[in-house]
Amino acid sequence: MEEREKREEEKKSLEKWTGFREILNLITLTGFVYGPLDERLSIREALEKNLRKPVPHHVNFSFCLGGITFFTFLVQAFTGVLLLMYYRPTTAEAYKSVVHITNNVPFGWLFRNIHHWASNIMIIAVFLHMLRVFFYGAYKPPRDFNWVNGVLLLVLTLTFGFTGYLLPWNQISYWATTVGTEIPSAIPVVGDLIKVLIRGGTDVSQTTLTRFFAVHVAILPPVISAFLGVHFLMIRRQGISGPL
Fold it and tell me: What is the tens place of the pLDDT at every residue in 207-235?
């Protein structure tokens, strides 16, 4: 009799734990993805099919440079959104807002430094990635179109760095932008027109800051995301390039 009651209690306890686990699965992301949602969409099977692929023997650390570049881009996007909550893109308030972020906002100095250093790492990583692709000959057909796409991504990355450099609106960023935007004026015939188009006038001013801010925050992120999507799709389709 006692053993029977004990078994019933264990059964009830197991049923309670099973019910609790089902509730936990529903309210947690991983439980929902690999629980009820997985039963309908077979997410686990799809992930295993796409992620569990044999890696060729010639693959080394240099093949990770593209992934490092993409990771720094994600870091830039995350920290950039946080900085955007306090930054004010006007000539009167831009520098003050950066000082406020650095000195007063909790962990503002940390996220600003992460944003700054991640941008440098991103540019270095994308150059090293392209050097690896060049020396391995991975730019040749059938991957030549992906190489062109990668060159455009390099240009977009450099544009990210150039437009973001002006945003603190300090002496260094102002004069660096002045020199940088003066370079196109050396182009015959259309040089001065390009310079005025970039600056929004003859001098670096509020219009320049507004244009750089708009390009840096609103235009470049979706454009580079689209190019990255195409880049990754072609890599998945064509596979990893061969050895030297």
Answer: 999 999 999 999 999 999 999 999 999 99
